[in-house]
Design a protein that fits this description.
3 domains, D-Maltodextrin-Binding Protein, domain 2, Dipeptide-binding Protein, domain 1, single chain, Dipeptide-binding Protein, domain 3, 560 residues, alpha+beta, 4-stranded antiparallel β-sheet
Length: 560
């Protein structure tokens, strides 16, 4: 979902021997003999982990880390659409009518504490997601499951998910792929306070990696799970992966150039240009593809003018998005690392993204006209719009440590000032920012999505009807009956080719309502040290399949 935040110097990382060496160290003990591993990957992270509870992740980073600590039931790759691959499940089969999926799990897989991973652990995840006290953003995964099949446990390694209707198989596969959670550890936990449970930041999982150490606001250290019992090919080739918490962007870049970290995400385009020239021998720049998007959300419950569609349309006409993209998202060679956004369905989903929507053009005079129609004029000649004695003034909040968003906020502020709107800026530490957005404690906010690669718009755009259908990601409390109907129709259309026009219609209707100021999709640059091979930096993750990453023996930096 969104991102992170204040400065930090180099951290002393604890080696497996227990001494503080100031540098990452490999495991030189008996564990290293179990399978060959070498070197350390150090990732600069903008913020600490928020929650490693699969049914309630807080950030995209939480999800990326969990994907390596656990294994999804049905794993995925991507090429224009999700491609299903073996995960915790060794096989899965749809019934002829598309309403039932029977899943066979790998046998012999155990939790890190030695307890077996069973079909009942997956059922437990769905019980938690369904519990209203958990307020899980994954509740939508159960929306079309039969009440007695969420799921049915046939035996320890077989389970059935039965749906009330057939629908898109990519979405169905994602909906049955919540990571298993250990009933033997969390079965007696209070569902309403899961995020406060020790498991949230110090979990026991069953994947190829384990969380070896977590120093709050400093580092998260993953090491090979030497007790891993899953498929052989997932065994890691690296000694460890360190997420080093460096909230300030400039400090992350300094750490990269000094060699203190190996990977930095979300590079500014100016730094992409510079690093390519100054570090051609030791750094590669990879592009992830268009999965991340930036937007401004309007909260009409906190600032009444945002309830008026003419005001929201005026704001879209008032911001010169093309100018901002050219200024902060275009390289020296003219390469544009972004494309205009018109919704939350990524253009990477070929044939589904609505390419026919024409973004509202920059037109400050039209913006002023729409605002005047809504009653907002400069009645006293002071340069600021007002209505019924109220000045058009609000605060937009965003998260610290993201230079792109910080620069964007300043540009938006300048554009709105030109038409008489006084927008103040407020930056918050990332976790504080996310909490405020989650609880809708803002007038406007600048944030982003890491878009879903299967289509289920209900979590962001479905009408919220608490407590039975919470929509914790519907941050603006958007509600449109026609959109709700299209979501239902699209999800209930199994053939993706038949569903595509429905999703395109949905995108057009949401864009017309302008609940967001849709900014852009980002082709996010990631810098990584050239010694790493087998790396996967793509639309799925900035560090997908960490078990496949390795360093040739003659290039190892951190010795055992």
């Amino acid at each position: 979902m969104t991102r992170f935040a204040t400065a930090l110097a180099a951290l002393a990382l604890v080696g497996c021997g227990g001494s503080d060496s100031g540098q990452p160290q490999g495991d030189g003990g008996e564990n290293a003999k179990r399978w060959p591993t070498q070197d350390t990957l150090v990732i600069a992270s903008q913020a600490d982990i928020g929650s490693l509870i699969p049914v309630k992740p807080r950030t995209a980073t939480d999800s990326f880390i969990m994907a390596n600590l656990a294994i999804e039931t049905i794993d995925s790759d991507f090429d224009c659409s999700l491609k299903k691959r073996e995960g915790l499940a060794k096989s899965w089969e749809w019934s002829d009518d598309g309403k039932k999926i029977t899943i066979k799990l790998h046998e012999g897989v155990t939790w890190e504490d030695g307890e077996p991973v069973t079909a009942d652990d997956i059922k437990f995840s769905y019980e938690l997601a369904a519990n209203p006290n958990v307020a899980s953003p994954r509740l939508g995964y159960l929306e079309y499951l039969k009440p007695d099949a969420n799921p049915r446990v046939i035996d320890d390694h077989t389970l059935e998910f039965e749906f009330t209707r057939a629908y898109d198989r990519d979405a169905q596969a994602a909906h049955v792929s919540l990571e298993a959670m250990p009933r033997h550890i969390l079965g007696s936990a209070d569902p309403g306070t899961l995020e406060g449970h020790p498991f949230a930041t110090n979990p026991t999982f069953f994947g190829p990696w384990r969380l070896a150490k977590h120093i709050p606001n400093q580092s998260v250290i993953l090491e090979p799970n030497w007790k891993y019992t899953g498929p052989e090919y997932r065994k890691p080739k690296l000694d460890r992966v360190v997420f080093k918490v460096i909230p300030e962007y400039s400090a992350r870049i300094i750490a990269l150039e000094k060699g203190d970290v190996d990977l930095v995400e979300n590079l500014t385009i100016a730094d992409v240009d510079r690093l390519r020239k100054e570090h051609p021998d030791d750094l590669d720049i990879k592009l992830r593809g268009y999965r991340a998007m930036d937007y401004v959300g309007w909260n009409g419950t906190k600032f009444a003018p945002f309830n008026d569609i003419k005001v929201r349309q005026a704001l879209a006409h008032a911001v010169d998005r093309d100018r901002i993209m050219k200024k902060i998202l275009t390289g020296e060679d003219g390469t544009l690392y972004a494309k205009p956004a018109v919704g939350t369905i990524t253009p990477e989903l070929c044939g589904v993204h609505n390419d026919d929507i024409v973004p509202l053009a920059y037109d400050p005079e039209k913006a002023k006209g729409l605002l005047a129609e809504a009653g907002w004029t400069d009645s006293d000649g002071d340069g600021w719009l007002d209505k019924d004695g109220q000045k058009f003034a609000f605060t937009m909040v965003t998260n610290q440590g993201n230079k792109r968003r910080g620069d964007t906020a300043v540009e938006i502020q300048a554009d709105l000032k030109k038409i008489g709107i006084d927008m103040s800026l407020d930056t918050k530490e990332s976790n504080t920012f996310f909490e405020r957005v989650e609880h809708r404690e803002y007038e406007a906010f600048l944030a982003g999505w890491s878009a879903s690669l299967f289509i289920d718009p209900s979590t962001i755009w479905g009408t919220e009807t608490l407590p039975d259908r919470p929509r914790p990601y519907n941050h603006t409390l958007y509600s449109n009956a026609e959109v709700d109907a299209l979501i239902s129709q699209g999800l209930n259309t199994p053939d993706p080719r038949e569903a595509a026009p429905i999703w395109k219609d949905l995108q057009a209707k949401i864009y017309a309502d302008q609940p967001y100021l849709f900014l852009w999709w980002l082709n996010i640059p990631v810098a990584i040290h050239k010694r790493f091979e087998g790396e996967k930096i793509n639309v799925l993750s900035p560090y997908q399949d960490l078990h496949e990453w390795y360093v040739p023996a003659d290039k190892v930096k951190y010795k055992r």
